[in-house]
Every structure is written in structure tokens, then in C-alpha cells.
Amino acid sequence: MLNLMRRALARLRARRHPAALALPKPPGHHAPQRPPHHPESPLDGDASRLVRPYLLAHEQQQARRERAFLREMAVTS
Description:
This protein is mainly alpha-helical. Helix content is 57%, strand content 0%.
């Protein structure tokens, strides 16, 4: 039982400090440059075919919300 507890504690320590198990980076190693996560300007749906489906879904969701809001306002008035 004591041996089992020691192994469990060793696993927990390894999870808490994974950097201690990692190999050091070779000299001269640099992280790759990544683009910013938030571009300066919003994405243009007409300029990119990949953006268009998401833009359409957003516009449809916005229209549904507006219709629901107007229905709610008509019911309460």
C-alpha cells in the first residue's frame, strides 16, 4: 500500500512540474513568429470565401434575434 501511495505521489509531482522533465532547447532556437490573434480591421466577408459562411450565419442569427425582440415587444404592448 505504501508503495502504491509513493507511485501516486510521484505521478502528481510529475504533472505539477512537467518543465523539469522537458528537454532544454538547443542554443539559437527561437519560437516561430505568429500573426496576432485579433487583426486591426474586421474580416471582410466579400473578400474571403472562408469568412462568408460565418458572416452569413451571424447575419441570420442577428435577424432572428431582431424578429424575436419585435415579437416580444408586440406581445407586451
